[in-house]
User: Fold this.
Amino acid sequence: MSADPDEELVRRVGAGDPAAVQTLVARKLPRILSLAARMLGDAAEAEDVAQETFVRIWRHASSWRRGNARFDTWIHRVTLNLCYDRLRRRREWVTDDLPDVADPSPLPDAGEETQRIEQALQGIAPRQREAIVLVYYQEMSNIEAAAAMEISVDALESLLSRGRRALQMILARDGVHD
Amino acid sequence: MDAKRFAALAQAYGGDPRRWPEDERAAAEAFASSEAGQAISQHAGKLDTLLDGYRVRHPSKALSGSILRAADRHLVQRRRQRVWWFGLGLAGIGLAGAIAGLALVTVVTPEAQSEHYVLDANATAFGDVGPEAENGEESL
Assistant:
């Protein structure tokens, strides 16, 4: 197993080193926030998830030991679990209270095409979205993404193919992709 | 690498070789230069271009600040817990020492004679005055 580039930093965080805490936030916050934002399609919820992820990091840093996964893989798993909790709650809420119409208001600062991609990503199955986000946006290798999703590389490849095909269909329907 | 596998890779990972599996990248890149490879890559590249356009916001200073403040609270709390546990540990060691000392004193020190010693009916301050003692004296 290759060395974990975050291991020493996490050890220092666990020992209470304030400089290490700042470095860890600077290094990981953009990754965690972009993962949550693309999984949830909601900037405010993504910020909440990022904060909750870091609370878990502070809580576990002193006892964190590298098992089979790297620290980066572990925080991706934590973030994804928090995202799934929110997606589940959202589904229950929609089932109970909301009408069937999605909010049509445009996102602030988002171009029309960006908005369509975001909506298309939100329109595919969460596991397919997760696979695409990890490999495409988080720039994980197939092995790292499969580890974060706790599936085999073959299963990951299948999710990626089906996810991309579903995206192509949605975008073609919206006239964005041919 | 054949066209079927190349198409499967492009459908899963897109047209950018950097995302392809490391163990198949060299063979896939070699196939990509073929006519079939170029057509497949071009098709996959269209979706890649659209996905590239979806950018999310960078973390705000307010969010970073809030996370760092939460970290401070956790670190202070953990430091307090450590001090508390250290104090408790010291108290425990002290208590264990006291118990061990008491046990040692109990084992090493000979049993003290009772202050309420009941004199034998035949005993005097000068010795035993019972019939056996008398016999002894007579035999001298």
Notes: Chain B touches chain A through 31 residues (CB under 8 Å). The mean pLDDT of chain B is 82. The longest helix of chain B spans residues 61-108. The helical segments of chain B are 3-13, 22-32, 35-52, 61-108, 131-139.
